[in-house]
Amino acid sequence: MATISHAYHRVSDEPFEIERAFDADYLLYASTGTFILDIGDRRWMLPPQRAALIARGTVIAVRSKGQATASSVLFGDSEFDAPLPVCRVFGLSDLARQMILHVMRWDAGRPSCDETANAFFKALASVARDLAADEDETWLPKPQSPGMAVAVARMLEDLDQDLDFGSLAEAARLSERTLARKFDAELGMNFRDFRHRARMVRAKEMLLAGREPITEIGLACGFESTSSFIKAFRTFAGTTPRQYRMGKAG
Hints:
The chain is of the alpha+beta class. Helix content is 42%, strand content 22%. Pfam families: HTH_18. This is Putative transcription regulator protein, AraC family.
């Protein structure tokens, strides 16, 4: 039986963690709270300013650290003309956000002959596909061992500081040499490169939230001056922090 497009809405009052694969192309969106999405060896943060378009059959792990609302869409078999990439994470426009919230009225029990719903889901698929073509580089490599997970979590807690590598090794209960090897083996980059990428991803998250001044975001991400932050961000993202905020948060 062919899958019809339908919405998936769930409010979670407590932290949760699930792992599964859908038999449909999937638009994952947290209308409140933040999801942490793991696919393969990559991890994304999904605040309400971002969504993920995921190909059918892809195994995903999703968790939240607190209250969150899933307002997501499973697309029917004929909504996309070609197979989707495994995962694309992108910034949502106001139009896309409102369209997602609008389709929440049509769940899996809706009539397949509802032409209004069918047309709306088709339009949403087109909008999501176009937005996903401009993928936002916001993933981090995922730790593969407990010790590495501890070290990364410790570092991410204090991205505004230049933590001593020895303190991370101590927290992970590993020697500095072993931890250095694990950064290369598990994350595909050394400690300094990973920290820099994490700072850039954190900066994107803060810019999308749209509240704090750019100077304060730079300081929170470990930069001593606004000019050094802007230069590093432009190199990473191809645009200035201000331009990124204006272009992605709408």
